[in-house]
Every structure is written in structure tokens, then in C-alpha cells.
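A reminder from the course coordinator: this example appears on the midterm review sheet, so study it carefully.

Given structure:
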């Protein structure tokens, strides 16, 4: 089984919650993942000291491959000259020189795409055609039995609530292309609350049996939660087996000072299409998840 920790919207800077970050570091180590995914907005205003704090936090996470992608807050908003001519300068120096990346771990190929668009759509984001081609090439080289995962900060599907967020431009078209590539899971952030569902919830698709599972993480360590997660923090634990994948949404509770399992979502893998009647192929990991909370 592959285990991933998926967090997002760290927002090192004024809204950062140090005590919650400590709880997240502890929880991430307890999960013992094969990789950690941070889907953007590591900083609040893309300042040097914020990136230094974000890099220090990443260093304290489990010593496994880290899949990190920039968010719109990781490029300067008010420093217009820098945004126009060197928008990712601080991100490249302190986090990663590469903006679009491929990470391979046994059983999984993870493609991270930079959806920040500092020149044209700093809030709403974009995925460009050359990035879709980058993903296609990476997945073409992947082992046939790898699960194929895409990470991007901005969302391909709005959360089903009253906030009324709009998806990225061309989201439906890109979802169709990811489906054709065999992508099974998309991980993202930006919404500041969790959403776990399927691309078929928002787009009918040309293949209605082949939707892509979408998992958004809320803000993991800042005070900028929205909608049902206002003033709350969350992250996801993802477990992937041969026949199913399971996503456990963890939320931080002041009552315990820890992240606690809040909801569990299970999906059959693409080749399975459904679970056996009345069963899920492995029991929900309540005992494992309870270890996350100590």
C-alpha cells in the first residue's frame, strides 16, 4: 500500500499558526508516508523570510520525497516589477528550482504542475498546453501499473458549497485530457477547505465510467479557512492499494490540540470500477488513523 500525506496553503507569514504546524509535523511523522505533497501557497506574500520559514518547515517533515508546487501567494502581488520579471525568484531559491516536476516512487508517478499565472491570472490560475504535454510525456514513460497522480494548486472543480468559486479556465478540457492519460487522482488546494469527490461531479466527460478522483486540502497551518472550515485547519492522508484508494480528511481540533480523522472517502481503482457487494476490499484504517492523533 502507498501512503501519502497531502497538505496545502501553509501561508507562512501573518496568518501562520505555529502551534498547528507543530501538530501537523507530528501527525505527518506518525503516518509514515512514502511521499509528502504540499499543493501550493507556502507563503502569504512571497517574502524572503516567509520562504525561509516554509523551507524550515519542509525540512522537519518526514524524510521522503516531497512534491511541492507554487501557489498564487508564492509570487509577489504588490511588488509589480518583480511579479512581471522574476515572479518565482524566491520560490526557486528557497523551495525548488523546477516549477513543473515528476516524482516517481514505487507504484506511483506524480506530476506536479505550476498553476500560478503571475502575468495574467494571479488569483484564478492557469494550466498551459505545454504543461499538459509535459504530463502526457511523463505518464507515457510511467510503469503500466503505476497510479498516475497530478498535483496543482488551483482547483479543477469548485467545492459544493455557498462560496461560489469558479474552476480554472479550460478545467473541463484538461480533465478530459487527464482522463485519457489514465490519471486517477488530482490533488490541490487554494479553496481553503477540503473537497473530496470525482471529476464526474462537475463534468459529464466523454467516458462516464472513468472519472478522476479529486482531493482538495484545506489550509493546513493558517487562519484563513473558508466556508465549513472557517478558522479551521486540515490535511489529507491518502492510502492506495491495488484495488482501491482511501482518503482520510484530518481536521485540527482545539479540544485535543491535534489533527483528528474527520471523514473517510473510499474509491475503487480505475480497473475495478466498483467494490464487491456490501464490502470495501480492505477495512477502513480507523486504528491506523488513530495513531495519527497520538
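Designed residues:
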Amino acid at each position: 500500500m502507498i501512503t501519502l500525506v497531502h497538505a496545502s496553503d501553509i501561508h507562512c507569514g501573518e496568518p501562520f499558526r505555529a502551534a498547528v504546524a507543530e501538530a501537523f509535523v507530528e501527525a505527518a511523522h506518525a503516518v509514515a508516508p512514502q511521499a509528502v505533497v504540499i499543493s501550493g501557497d507556502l507563503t502569504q506574500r512571497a517574502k524572503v523570510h516567509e520562504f525561509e520559514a516554509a523551507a524550515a518547515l519542509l525540512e522537519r517533515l518526514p524524510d521522503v520525497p516531497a512534491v511541492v508546487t507554487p501557489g498564487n501567494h508564492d509570487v509577489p502581488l504588490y511588488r509589480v516589477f518583480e511579479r512581471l520579471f522574476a515572479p518565482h525568484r524566491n520560490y526557486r531559491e528557497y523551495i525548488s528550482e523546477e516549477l513543473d516536476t515528476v516524482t516517481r516512487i514505487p507504484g506511483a508517478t506524480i506530476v506536479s504542475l505550476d498553476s500560478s499565472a503571475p502575468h495574467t491570472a494571479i488569483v484564478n490560475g492557469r494550466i498551459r498546453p505545454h504543461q499538459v504535454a509535459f504530463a502526457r510525456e511523463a505518464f507515457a514513460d510511467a510503469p503500466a501499473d503505476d497510479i498516475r497522480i497530478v498535483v496543482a494548486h488551483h482547483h479543477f472543480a469548485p467545492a459544493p458549497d455557498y462560496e461560489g468559486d469558479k474552476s480554472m479556465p479550460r478545467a473541463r478540457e484538461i480533465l478530459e485530457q487527464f482522463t485519457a492519460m489514465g490519471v486517477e487522482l488530482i490533488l490541490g488546494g487554494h479553496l481553503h477547505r477540503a473537497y473530496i469527490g470525482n471529476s464526474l461531479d462537475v463534468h459529464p466527460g466523454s467516458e462516464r465510467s472513468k472519472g478522476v478522483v479529486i482531493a482538495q486540502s484545506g489550509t493546513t497551518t493558517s487562519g484563513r479557512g473558508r466556508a465549513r472550515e472557517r478558522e479551521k485547519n486540515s490535511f489529507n492522508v491518502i492510502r492506495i492499494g491495488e484495488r482501491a484508494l482511501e482518503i482520510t480528511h484530518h481536521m485540527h481540533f482545539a479540544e485535543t490540540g491535534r489533527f483528528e480523522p474527520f471523514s473517510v472517502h473510499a474509491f475503487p481503482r480505475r480497473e475495478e470500477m466498483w467494490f464487491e457487494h456490501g464490502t470495501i476490499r480492505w477495512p477502513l484504517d480507523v486504528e491506523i488513523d488513530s495513531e495519527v492523533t497520538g
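The CA atoms of residues 179 and 210 lie 7 Å apart. The first strand starts at residue 2 and ends at 7.
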